[in-house]
Amino acid sequence: MLGQLVLECGLLTPEQLEIALAEHMSSGKRLGEVLIDRGWVTPEQLADLLHRQENGARGIDLLRTSVAEAEAELEAEHAAETGDGEPGHVLFVWTPSGYELLARAGEPPSVGSEVGFSGGLRVVSKIGPSPLPGDRRSCAFLDAPS
Fold first, then answer.
1. Which residues have CB under 8 Å from 110's CB, separation 6+?
2. Which residues on adjacent β-strands are paired with residue 102?
3. What is the model's pTM?
4. Enclosing domain of residue 105
5. What is the mean pLDDT of the chain?
């Protein structure tokens, strides 16, 4: 939601936001910290954005519901694909309309390897835990196209 707010307020370009989100995901820093560290927003601007975000906290409940539905869908898809009880992995994939999570069977691909999916080929930039709450699978984070 913070990323959407900085775009709506015209504080960042979509490219800057993509860079900040990638750093946020890889470093574990909060997105606001990344934005301040890079000099793209001031602490005062961040405070204003966070205040706006807090006022929109009702959307968080909707987001939690969406995540739970996506998690259930991925688990069902995974069970149907593998049928062998293996945990499998998920792919965190950039698309023009946003990020998607895809369930895959087996071990995750290694960093630097290319992964094909319906949107083309992407390179694995990082392996980490699934971003879904309570999901014990590994996640392969795929780079956005250049």
1. 124, 127
2. 91
3. 0.43
4. 80-142
5. 81
